[in-house]
Every structure is written in structure tokens, then in C-alpha cells.
Design goal:
Helix content is about 80%, strand content about 0%. The protein has five helices and no strands. The protein has helices spanning about 5-30, 35-65, 70-75, 75-90, 90-105. The chain starts with a helix and ends in an 11-residue tail after the last helix.
Length: about 110
Amino acid sequence: MTGDMIADLLLPALGLMLLAFVVTRGVEMLVPETVLGLAVMTLVSAMLCWVLASAGFAVLYAVQDGRILALLGQTPSASAGHFLRLGAKAALLWAPILLLTVSTAPRRWKTAVW
């Protein structure tokens, strides 16, 4: 395993997993300690992770080659669709962490009892 492989594969994967954890815990602070709150937390966190992962892919593309921004600007709807599909595919990495964080949320409840 080379250093390039670590930088190119492992770090972005770990970043996506960390993103899911941080986003879900952040949303957890904003929703009520109820079953409905858990459902809302799951949906809002998933949507945020999807959009943020998509934006992350756009940034990685731009960092790799700055000329890509000009090309993406020519077809913004197709470009957005491409990055949203990449963000959805990345759910293989971030969704399990998101679900694990949501499923352990009742343990951290202060007022409600599960």
C-alpha cells in the first residue's frame, strides 16, 4: 500500500465517515428527544450528508484540475446531477455511520426515556 493510495482512497473515505458522524450529532442537538425526532434527524442528516458529499466531490475535481470549473460551468445542470450521483454513491460509506449514530442517540437523551 503506497502513500498515494492512502491519500487518494483512505483519507476521503474516512472524511466521509467523519462527516456523517459530525453532521448527525449536530442535527441531534436540534431535534426533540422523541421517535419523531429520530426520524427527522435521520432524514435531515442524510440530506445534508448527501449534499455535502456531493460538494466535496466537486471540490476534489476542482483541486485535481482547475480547468474543470470552466467545463462544469458550461452545463451546470448536468454537472450538478453528476456530483449528486457521486454523493449518493458515497452513501455506501457515510450511511452506515449515520445510521449507527442515529441508533445510539436515545442513549444520550437527557429528558426522554427510551
